[in-house]
Amino acid sequence: MTLPTDVAVTGLGLVTPAGIGVERNWTVLCEARGTAAAPDPELKGMPVDLACRVPDFDADGLLGARRAHRLDRFVQFALVAAEEALADAGLDRTRWDGARVGVVLGSAAGGLHTYERQHEVLLHQKPQRVTPLLLAMYLPNMLAGQVAIAVDAQGPNMVVATACASGSTAVATACDLLALGRCDVVLAGGSDAMITPLAMSGFATMGALSRRTEDPAGASRPFDRDRDGFVAGEGAGLLVLERAADARARGARARARIVGHGTTADAHHITAPHPDGRGLERAVRQALAGAGAAPGDVSYVNAHGTSTPLNDLVEARVLHRTLPHGPPVSSTKGVTGHLLGAAGAIEAAYTVLAVERGLVPPTANLAHRDAEMDIDVVATPTPHRIELALSNSMGFGGQNAVLALGRA
User: Fold this and answer.
1) Which pLDDT score, from 0 to 100, does residue 94 have?
2) Where in 215-327 does DSSP place strands (E)?
3) What phi, psi does 27 have (nearest 5°)?
4) Is the C or the N end of the chain the one with fewer CB within 10 Å?
5) Taking a C-beta distance cutoff of 8 angstroms, is the pair 403, 258 a contact?
6) pLDDT by residue (tens digit) across 235-261?
7) Mean pLDDT of 201-214
């Protein structure tokens, strides 16, 4: 069963390698100067030491030192993004009915920073030296739990984990909660902070990361002929979602609407997408069906576009097959790197901005278009009236999630 979806996006909050805040993100995104990657001191001596960090993230200054020190980095990002999103939505959390407010967030890994550091404590010191806050800082569900505590959201509260599709899956789940009448407001999105020695070593040894260490800014190059892997990033994206009718009733500004979504599994391989992209294609078609739209109605696609050889090729073939009219396509990972479990939510927010502002953000580092890909990948900021956009996400385990977004 496909639930009817007409959800207003009334607030956005972003913490990414492009910067802190929605306007900063959009400016950097449209400049397309290249990937925000650099050698990372925490990864010194690792097989690959490139990463995209959030610049100038002062957790103590943003959250208060006592509070920040009791939170893993992935939760810190989400709390800062939540504050911006709620302010953007014009919602006063001291006056709402908290029982009607939900939090649905995605994370691929939870508090890896805390886990790895405390494991070192266990190995090299006494077990009694492990912090009593270990589980409260590490468990993935604490992402939504801490946001709920901060804003008094007493409704449905959950963290979904569908690898790199987590953020998009969380937004889709939030839309279903609104359609079912379980909530009036949902904070939806994702957050991850996986730039740690253990996680990055795993990605490197499986061959997923770019080895373009001599050219960090050019390392993430979605849909480019010379792409060789992704660059890992960190960050959070949160969207405030309400039923469109409710948003209108309270006089809220809707930036855009989520009008459909699709979630599927390839049921094929633990890391590789199905060679025919069958799961992604079904997710695209589900999203269009939910929106009551035909393929030809799509006027922009924010692609998953990781910069890995196989993933980009499969996604391009699916887009060519399902959207033969060839709408403009871009991947923002050329600037931010791959935000992993947060990627889908952040890219959904970018898609909201593209729809709202009538501008297709560029794909950075697209120097040589891959001749095997018959899609219209945009390399410069392009004014374009966007009536209906798709935001694609794919993840390990064959996870697929597609969001359909329309004008407010």
Assistant:
1) 87
2) 234-243, 256-265, 300-302
3) -60, -50
4) N
5) yes
6) 999 999 999 999 999 999 999 999 999
7) 96
Closest CA to 169 of 158, 161, 177: 161
- The H or E element spanning position 392 is strand 388-395
Beta strands in 118-173 (DSSP E): 157-160
Token pair for residue 196? 């740690």
Q: Which residues are designated catalytic?
A: 164, 304, 338
Render pLDDT for 73-132 as a digit per residue (tens, 0 to 9). Answer: 999 999 999 999 999 999 998 889 999 999 999 999 999 999 999 999 999 999 999 999
Q: Round to whole Å and give the CA distance between 361 and 330.
A: 7
Q: Which of 285, 397, 295, 303 is nearest to 350 (CA)?
A: 303
The encoded tokens of residue 76 equal 């810190």
256 dihedral zone (left: phi>0; alpha: psi -120 to 50; beta):
beta
Q: Are strands 38-39 and 19-20 parallel, antiparallel or unpaired?
A: unpaired
Q: What is the rounded distance in angstroms from the CA atom of residue 138 to the CA atom of residue 141?
A: 9
Specify the DSSP element, H or E, that contains 402.
strand 399-406
Distances (CA, A) of 86 to 16, 101, 106, 346: 18, 12, 18, 16
Structure-token pair, residue 180: 């079912």
Handedness of CA 159, 163, 169, 173 (dihedral sign): negative
At residue 25, φ and ψ (nearest 5 deg) are -60, -50
6 pairs with which residues across the strands?
Answer: none
State the pLDDT confidence band at 2, using cuts at 50, 70 and 90.
low
Tally the residues of the chain.
408
Name every residue whose Cβ is closer than 8 Å to that of residue 65 and which is 6 or more positions away in sequence: none
Cβ atoms of 197 and 372 within 8 Å: the answer is no
Residue given tokens 């001749």 in the structure block: 371
CA distance 333 to 315: 14
364 SS3 class: coil
Which two three-digit tokens encode residue 119? 């494991």
Measured CA to CA, the distance from residue 405 to residue 291 in angstroms comes to: 9
Report whether 375 contacts 320 (CB < 8 A).
yes
> Which of helix, strand or coil describes residue 326?
coil
Q: Percentage of the chain with pLDDT > 90?
A: 97
Distances (CA, A) of 195 to 46, 164, 247, 337: 12, 14, 37, 12
Name the nearest CA neighbour of 311 among 195, 205, 234, 224. Answer: 224
